[in-house]
Amino acid sequence: MVLSDGLGNTIAGGDFWSGVRQGIITSGLNHLAHEGINKLEIRRTLLSRFKKVNGKHVTNPYAKPEFNPEGFKALLDNVDGLQSTYDKGNRPEIDCDYNSAVGEYVSGDHKVYINKAENQTNYKLASTFFHEFRHAI
What we know:
Strand content: 5-15%
Radius of gyration: 22 Å
Structural class: mainly alpha
Number of helices: 5
Number of domains: 2
Largest sheet: 3 strands, mixed
Oligomer: single chain
Number of strands: 5
Helix content: 55-70%
């Protein structure tokens, strides 16, 4: 596509490299626009999974998560699809004493390790759970 921009510019009487440069800029901006839309769509999709009662979230996606069995159960119960993904992964143990990546699944331990500092909202923790539980499947 970029070469054709250069050729088209030359045929129209312009500079080949100016056309190539414009093609690169246009392609780059198009790519960024689509990336942004995809990220917004993913965010909207996950956010829509948080159950609501009377228009209010049962578990607030923006609240600080509770890193204990009750907090995990609340997320599993109140985020559509999270419990089933956990079950399909054969219910890995969840360990929150982890200081490396956002989260990690270790198959030998059948554990999901969660970094508390990197999962500061229920939304982020649910996202990390979905990701790591899929590794367990």
